UniProtKB/TrEMBL annotation:
Stretch forming the signal peptide: none
Superkingdom, taxonomy of origin: Bacteria
Protein name: Alpha/beta fold hydrolase
Classification via InterPro entries: AB_hydrolase_1, AB_hydrolase_fold, AB_hydrolase_sf
Record GO biological process: acylglycerol catabolic process
Amino acid sequence: MSASAWRRTSSPPPERSLRARLLRLVGLTLMAGAAAAAWWRAPEWPVQTLVERWGMPPSTFVELQGAAVHLRDEGPLQDSAPLLLLHGVGGSLHDWEPWAQALKASHRVIRLDLPGNGLSDAAPGDDYRSETEARRMLALLDQLGVARVRVVGHGRGGEVAVQMALLAPRRVQRLLLVAAAPLAAEVLPPVLRLAPSLPWPQWVVSSMLPGPLVTGALQSLYADPSRLTPEQVERRLVLLRREGNRWALLQQWRQDQSTADADATFARLRLPVLLLWGEADALAPPAQARALQQKIPGSRLQLLDGVGHLPQEEAPARSLAAAQGFIEGR
């Protein structure tokens, strides 16, 4: 066989073949990444562009420890123990809109975008630990001249509410915890379990927003996804584009307490507590609510049939009806 024929029929050396395959894989990965970046690219918006839609009266902005906080304070000022409504991860004061509209006729209702959420500035020093958040809420009450409150907390907002009750037991009259158990790691998709631990560059977190994934995640929080309105999806997506919110969301995930620590914290509560839960909550299953009830002395549990992780949005009238007696001290 001639040398030229041998060159035509022989295979490339194994190391060259492997290198070529690796280069192709890297190239395909970069192309896929570029396509995803182009598809999911969602630059941040300054807060001023969002205020006209989401921050008009009765909204106000107050300075709290050097940060601007978006607040709504409605109802009779003479209420001796106003209601403080705290939203969960990635939420906003708008999550409580149906409840606030129903309650403000007879109760003073204070709700806000927690720092790093909605239209509020990021937390000073990117500190989103629940105890730090609780101290901020107590400082806010001082600014508003409120001595005592009834606190309603959903999800992570419930953790903040619990810390408030432990830090200032004389100031918190009662607690309503809505789907507020620490999230069970085993129910989270692997990508969500892993994501907070990865060293994401801030520019990546702040410039991309996978809309279909966010929509799918919201649908999974409902027992009946058909109840999720386009307006609710749009609001979540738009407010996540507020400057700094996506980075703040990642920091909140990273700083969440462990389940064991949270369980011990719940067990120290000594005040009236109602646990309000959706029986179809896939993120914080009802089994967690029952376990939590055993840890909080004297607590009560109210389960809502056919409701998921967001009772105040999926079934606002029914969830409020289930909670109103407790809110009013009955």
